[in-house]
Amino acid sequence: xxxxxxxxxxxxxxxxxxxxxxxxxxxxxxxxxxxxxxxxxxxxxxxxxxxxxxxxxxxxxxxxxxxxxxxxxxxxxxxxxxxxxxxxxxxxxxxxxxxxxxxxxxxxxxxxxxxxxxxxxxxxxxxxxxxxxxxxxxxxxxxxxxxxxxxxxxxxxxxxxxxxxxxxxxxxxxxxxxxxxxxxxxxxxxxxxxxxxxxxxxxxxxxxxxxxxxxxxxxxxxxxxxxxxxx
Length: 231
Ligand code: 5GP
Ligand code: 5GP
Prior knowledge:
This protein has one domain: Ribonuclease T2-like (Ribonuclease Rh, Chain A, Alpha-Beta Complex), CATH 3.90.730.10. The chain has 7 helices and 7 strands. The chain has helices spanning about 20, 65-75, 95-105, 115-125, 130-145, 150-155, 170-180; strands spanning about 10-15, 40-50, 165, 185-190, 195-205, 210, 225. The strands form 2 sheets. Strands 1, 2, 4, 5 and 6 form a 5-stranded antiparallel beta sheet that branches. Strands 3-7 form a two-stranded antiparallel ribbon. The N and C termini lie far apart (about 45 Å). One guanosine-5'-monophosphate (5GP) binds next to strand 2.
């Protein structure tokens, strides 16, 4: 087979907090399988280059970044869409479907079919990995199961709440303590403007075997104090 896998340095395993995904002006929709659990859900496993200091660093290279600039920047920071001729086949992940429905649900107001979300992530990111279709999804599920972020945060007293706020540093410390490795954190804004913990980016070695400390800092729109809204 033609190898479409590109050189890259590490993966981000990105998980989204459903309470934060939904509490935005845009809102969310539940998948056709029903309301997901109040648990982090997988967004994707993303091959990445380590040479970009931050995801936006190359923006400052150009005076007035336009579309071309953005495309160039993204190409430099990570590979994507490495093989559009290899769409995700349901047969390749048949044994994982139940686990995927539970752990990788779609919340976007699109088709309501989580398979469409998985297909998109496979096409954009998975085709640049060396993992193959089954391996891509099995690897992602494996890390999520091995490091239960919802439980790790709860153990540190960080539980979903619509009025509590938590120090960003305690969230980072809890993840470091609970997984052994540093992760990056991304925040978003709720309908009332609150700063919410939106996504956790754990870093995985390029073989897809072990967590590593995240090699790049991320300015993820957080503030010193953040919320973890109920879902
Ligand atoms: P946004 O700009 O909305 O944060 O991200 C849009 C999309 O760009 C993400 O869903 C993901 O597919 C891709 N993306 C954003 N940041 C990264 C990154 O650091 N690495 C990789 N590989 N993809 C990213
Ligand atoms: P990315 O942001 O990874 O490049 O692309 C995500 C794509 O999957 C978008 O087209 C988005 O609409 C779709 N999508 C479907 N369900 C979800 C979801 O639950 N979360 C996110 N972030 N994107 C979703």
